[in-house]
Every structure is written in structure tokens, then in C-alpha cells.
Write a structure and sequence with these properties.
Layout lengths: L2 H10 L4 H9 L5 E6 L2 H17 L4 E6 L2 H7 L7 E4 L5 H11 L3 E5 L5 H9 L3 E7 L13 H9 L3 E4 L2 H9 L5 E3 L4 H10 L5 H7 L4 E7 L3 H12 L5 E5 L4 H10 L4 E3 L12 E3 L6 H4 L3 E6 L11 H4 L5 E3 L7 H9 L2 E3 L3 H13 L1 H17 L3 H11 L6
Parallel strand pairs: 1-2, 1-4, 2-3, 4-5, 5-6, 6-7, 8-9, 8-12, 9-11, 10-11, 12-13, 13-14
């Protein structure tokens, strides 16, 4: 979605918002409010929502988003009873919103904390949870100007369920005794998706039943360069590429870098099954199409940090990614386990690829290590769901 469209959606989505929420929630009860900043944050909390609703069918779930990308994609998601934008965070809006929803519990995913809403939740003694939280020392919350956020972290959450030990240590240093190390609930989601039966007739025909190399969340510049170099140096092999942005400009940019025949998923030519490269330009398929791979590359690691490296790992295939993964623990975890590999240029990706291609033992061992890493990290969503459903202590 272009920037202008996002801004337009952000503004239009909030016109008459509180009135629509009031109308929708009038006379309702047993509402749990779940807030996510955007698409990715909701993906982390969604397995927890599913488990809570399975455990307690009487629960109604109201989901809010800050970003249009999350709202537009999930506005018809069946696991939510209502989906809205979050109102702008003023004292009046916070009171009116909570009066309308009257939630029995509130859940925030990862970040995107709104102080007026948090302090109003605290004032009303509503159980409030922060799920899949992760913190770094460089964040604003730990700077002198972030004192109100530190206060909110210490006093407004019933529980802060963090993903890693480093985050827990930072919270303990500011006196947030309400924090617990829990892990990443996305692991349950990716394991569930990997275990589901799913095939795509178009990809089946193109792949011919053979495993291919899958490159997901590919960004322009470095990601495009290393993947196109790899495909061009192996014209005998097939590559399935999923760009991070699926607009025509992004798709054509990749296509222009490929020397061999390249087809786009939604506009196939006759005989497309002979194409070396297939570009997926449809939203929502990435986590599923990794099953077609014998190995994978996950993009964005040259820009900031890679996208979800556990999505391909859950299928038991080795995963590669760029060098800028910082504190993203799944990257280092997969490297340590033997199922992940960081590359810094085209030569590094080509060397790793050749090692997998020409050494079946190494390929099998790396794939097994990736799968076992995911298996060991699963079960988190169930623990989080039970903590939220049956936890009841608000910090003093």
C-alpha cells in the first residue's frame, strides 16, 4: 500500500470510530480487547487468541490496530469478533473507548503502548497483559525522557511476558517485577501451519514435484541482488521468490534482474511450468509456500533484521539470511543449532547453496536441526493463553 493510501486509510478509519465501537459493543459482555500495532504484531498474538477462544468459547475478542496494513489485512479475520482502528490516545478517548468496550482483560502485542489507555486500564483495575515483549537497552523507554513509559511498564501490566532473557533483565533493572520469561508464541503458529495439508496447483505444476529454493520477504537492493545472482549462476535450478512488497514496481525490479525465464504468479504465460523463476505476488502465501523448498533465504537482513526465519525452519529446511540480525534471537539460535546461516554477499549465499546442493548429508542434517529448534520452542502460546485466562494479580 502506497504511503498516501496508508495515510488516507489511517484518517478515514478514525472518522466516527468511537461511535461505531459503541454501537457494536452495546449490550455485549465477556470482551477481551487485543491491540497490535500492525500485521506482524497480530501474527504473534493470533495463536494465543485461538487457544483462549477454544478454552473459553464465551469470550468475545475485539481487536484494534494502529496501522492500516494490519487493519486492512485482518478486518475480516474470523478469530476476531470485531476489528477496529485504535482511537487516538487522549484522556477523553481512553475513557470513552473503555466505557464502550468494558473489557474483562486487555492484551498488547509486543509494543505500541498508549499511556492514557494504560493508565485508565490501571485505574479501572482491568487485567492487562503485554505478550511477546522484547526490549533493547537503546530503546526510548530506558532513556531519561521515557520515565512515564517505565512507570507504565512497572505498574500498568498484570504480567509482561517477554521473549528473551535480555528483555527480562532490562525490565528487572527498572523494577518491573511483573515480568516473566515466556518465549515466542509464533513458534506454535508456524508449527501448526507447517503441519497442515496444503498444496497450490499452480506451484505444483511449475515445480513438477521437485523441491525448489524459496526466497521470502525479499527487499529491493541487497536481497534482490544476492537472490538474482544465485538464480543466474544456477540456471538449471528453480527459484520461488516472494517479494516483501508485491506491487508491480517491486515485481518488475526482480524480474528484470533474472536472466532466465521468469513468470509472475497472477499473470502466467503458456508453458509457465518451464520457467526457472516464479514470483509470488499474492498476499498471505509466504508461510505456506516454504513447504516447496529444500532450503530458504529470508530477506531484510541487509536492512535491519530478517523477517520470520522460523517460518521456513518449521518445515525442516535450512535457512539463510543477511548479516544484520542483531539481537533477533531466532537467527542466532538457528545458527547455533546448525539450521541457520548468515551471509554477507552473493558469494556467501552461493557457497552455502552449493554446500547443500552437493552434500545431501549436510542438507539433511541442517534441515533436521532447523526443525528441532522449532519443536523445542513450541508450546509457548498455550502457556501464555493459560496465564492470561487464569492470572489475576495487578502490581501494586
Amino acid at each position: 500500500m502506497a504511503s498516501f493510501e496508508k495515510i488516507n486509510s489511517f484518517i478515514k478509519g478514525r472518522i466516527g470510530l468511537l461511535s461505531r465501537i459503541e454501537k457494536s459493543c452495546a449490550g455485549q459482555g465477556n470482551i477481551i480487547w487485543v491491540h497490535s500495532a500492525s500485521y506482524g504484531e497480530f501474527e504473534e498474538i493470533s495463536p494465543v487468541i485461538e487457544l483462549m477462544k477454544a478454552e473459553r468459547p464465551e469470550i468475545r475478542v475485539l481487536v484494534t490496530f494502529f496501522s492500516p496494513s494490519g487493519y486492512d489485512y485482518h478486518k475480516n479475520n474470523p478469530i476476531a469478533d470485531w476489528v477496529f482502528f485504535i482511537p487516538l490516545d487522549t484522556i477523553g478517548n481512553a475513557k470513552r473507548f473503555l466505557n464502550a468496550v468494558n473489557p474483562i482483560k486487555a492484551i498488547f502485542s509486543i509494543s505500541d503502548y498508549w499511556l492514557n489507555l494504560l493508565f485508565e486500564l490501571r485505574r479501572r483495575r482491568i487485567e492487562t497483559y503485554l505478550v511477546s515483549a522484547r526490549f533493547e537497552k537503546s530503546m526510548f523507554y530506558f532513556k531519561p525522557a521515557g520515565f512515564l513509559y517505565r512507570k507504565a511498564l512497572r505498574t500498568c501490566f498484570t504480567k509482561i511476558l517477554v521473549r528473551d532473557a535480555e528483555s527480562l533483565e532490562l525490565l528487572e533493572k527498572i523494577g518491573a517485577v511483573n515480568a516473566s520469561l515466556m518465549g515466542d508464541p509464533r513458534m506454535d503458529r508456524v508449527m501448526r501451519i507447517a503441519g497442515q495439508e496444503w498444496r497450490d496447483p499452480t506451484i505444483d505444476r511449475w515445480s513438477g514435484g521437485a523441491k525448489v529454493f524459496v526466497a521470502g520477504s525479499v527487499l529491493p537492493d541487497e536481497d534482490e541482488a544476492v537472490i538474482s545472482d544465485l538464480a543466474n549462476s544456477h540456471p538449471e535450478d528453480k527459484f520461488l521468490i516472494v517479494p516483501h512488497e508485491i506491487g508491480d514496481r517491486e515485481v518488475e525490479s526482480i524480474k528484470n534482474k533474472i536472466h532466465g525465464r521468469c513468470e509472475v504468479y497472477t499473470r502466467l504465460s503458456d508453458g509457465y511450468e518451464n520457467a526457472q523463476v516464479l514470483i509470488i505476488n499474492t498476499v498471505g502465501l509466504l508461510a505456506k509456500v516454504y513447504r516447496y523448498g529444500f532450503a530458504a533465504y529470508v530477506g531484510s537482513g541487509f536492512d535491519c533484521s530478517p523477517h520470520s526465519v522460523i517460518e521456513p525452519a518449521a518445515y525442516g529446511i535450512p535457512v539463510s539470511f543477511g548479516p544484520k540480525f542483531g539481537s533477533y534471537r531466532h537467527c542466532q539460535g538457528l545458527i547455533d543449532a546448525g539450521g541457520g546461516h548468515s551471509i554477507s554477499d552473493s558469494a556467501g549465499l552461493s557457497e552455502w547453496y552449493d554446500g547443500l546442493k552437493y552434500d545431501p548429508g549436510y542438507l539433511a542434517e541442517a534441515g533436521k536441526a532447523a526443525r528441532e529448534y522449532c519443536e523445542k520452542g513450541s508450546g509457548v502460546a498455550t502457556s501464555i493463553a493459560k496465564t492470561i485466562l487464569y492470572g489475576n494479580r495487578i502490581p501494586e
